[in-house]
Description:
Blueprint: E1 4-7, H1 12-23, E2 28-34, H2 41-53, E3 57-62, H3 98-113, E4 117-119, H4 135-148, H5 150-153, E5 159-161, H6 169-178, H7 203-215
Parallel strand pairs: 1-2, 1-4, 2-3, 4-5
Amino acid sequence: MRPAVVLLSGGLDSYTAGAIAKSEGFPLYALTVDYGQRHLREIESARLVARALDVARHLELAVDLRAIGGSALTTDEAVPRDRDLAAPGIPSTYVPARNTIMLSLALGWAEVVGSTDIVIGVNALDYSGYPDCRPEFIAAFERVAALATRAGVEGAAFRVHTPLIALDKAAIIRRGVALGLDYGLTTSCYDPSAEGRPCGRCDSCRLRAKGFHEAGIVDPAVLR
């Protein structure tokens, strides 16, 4: 099979999405983007996850979005804690155009390595309301890929694989455990301590805890 480019953040969603693609036979090229986020421990976790997935290559790119700002993850604005996860609206942890930027980088690398498959761990159920995690966005990006690339113009059909998009966090965790994944390698917290300890109160920490609780599985990260 041709390789797939997987966007690997170091979180449990991207780890699971990559593992699913690997189980389907895709050789993996992993792309991790250091976009100036405050939770750089994710980059360290992405390296661990890439090794666990035995990827063909792990590319790290620095695209500093702090100059743009507009997010609690790329500025000194406080990360919301204990927020109502069912509250309407888009939270301040939304990073403007993040997935558009990351998918564009993955698309460029996919052309170079001869791939027409990109894997991303977006989820439209247990998430914080980010607009770039929706199926409509993914479908629109596939149309852009067909129009904006040499490979697309020459007839290649790019596909953005989103194996988690319709799963809740508990179902994602169960799928990963069935694949033998070690979620202790992953990091989810938006605002960890200097020692890397998760805050336990940001949206991402709470969604992770909720998922493990509902799956009836102990989060291995809390045991380490």
